[in-house]
Amino acid sequence: MFIGSFFKRHGKQIAFHTLSCLAIGALLLVAYSAYQYKQMTNQWYAPIDGAKGSAKQATASLPPRDLLTGTEPLKPFVALLLGVDSRDGESARSDTMMLAAIHPGKQSVYLLAIPRDSYMELPGKGYDKVNHAMAFGGPKMVKESLEKFLQIKIDRYISVDFDGFRQIVDELGGVTVDVKKRMKYSDPSDDTYIDIQPGLQTLSGEQALDYARYRKSDLGKEDSDYMRIGRQQEILKALASKGTSLQGYTKAFSLMEILGQHVKTDLTEQEIASLLLSYGDGTPNAIQVDTLVGQDERIWHNGIVGWYHLVPTTERERARQQMIKEITP
User: Measured on CA atoms in the order 17, 19, 21, 24, is the torsion positive or negative?
Assistant: First the structure.
């Protein structure tokens, strides 16, 4: 009786204070999210030409018709994706290279994998494997080499180092993969020890990286680079699915911390926010994967005979046309 009487007299006040607390909590959450987001984007913002400034300040330097932000989705664009192997005392190496034709309006992404040994002209260095471009001149040289090789403009780049990849996978609870065969390889010279059993399983960050990088074998026949690329694409698709799931959203703060420390890109703060809105609205995203196909041949290079991946002109043109098609509004 007393409780009923109390709520009758003070119910409106209790409801008001409860709603006020919830509103304040929501505002604090939004403020903290904005702070974390700003910290992350400023940490990972690294213009490809080495210019200084924040991710927000860079917006003013964008060409008028390039990647416009606002209420409309970003215009379609091409991005260079790099998985970087950075070790103390050594130059960074691009272990994984892909071009992504991104169409935010359609929520689609076309991923074109570039074999590491692809033979092409590196600006100022002559002809060599594209994998060497990262060590010679960083993302800028990789970008310029691929632009000339495929005759297509690359608008942005995103690189993530191996340690960041491991942490992202672990934070999302691993990735589920059906491993087709036993994978075992060791190389004490660079601390590589891979041992993955076959079967459907959830891989940890370390295992997912091993699965994506595996090519040499202690058990018999080695894998081709195409098989390796296929596994990399498989892992990327699984991560993209997890990242846009409810679990991905609940891990947003911790993922931001990881990304801030291990990702470098010249996407601006506003561009990233726009992409998050386009691809994170709950509607299934369309991800298509492809590979630049050629053949391995032994050729003379700088007085030494070595294996290189030669991509014919017809294949380069096919890939170029497909990318243009994907980013056409």
Answer: negative
**What gap in Å lies between CA 138 and CA 226, rounded to an integer?**
24
Say what the pLDDT of residue 100 is. 93
pLDDT at 154: 96
Q: How confident is the model over 142-194, as pLDDT tens digits?
A: 999 999 999 999 999 999 888 888 998 898 889 889 999 998 888 776 677 88
CA 53/CA 21 separation, integer angstroms: 38
Q: Given this model, what pLDDT does residue 41 score?
A: 65
| Cβ neighbours, 10 Å, residue 282 | 7
Two structure tokens written together for 141: 């040289």
What are the pLDDT digits (tens) for 71-104? 678 899 999 999 887 654 455 666 789 999 999 9
End-to-end CA distance of the chain: 67
Helix, strand, coil tally for the chain in percent (to 5)? 45, 25, 30
Residue 229 near residue 213 (C-beta atoms within 8 A): no
Distances (CA, A) of 188 to 185, 191, 193: 10, 5, 8
DSSP string, 241-265: HHHTSHHHHHTHHHHHHHHHHHEEE
Statement: the pTM of the whole predicted model exceeds 0.85:
no
Tokens of 262: 């291990």
* Residue 101: strand pairing partners: 78, 110
- 161 — phi, psi (to 5°)? -85, 165
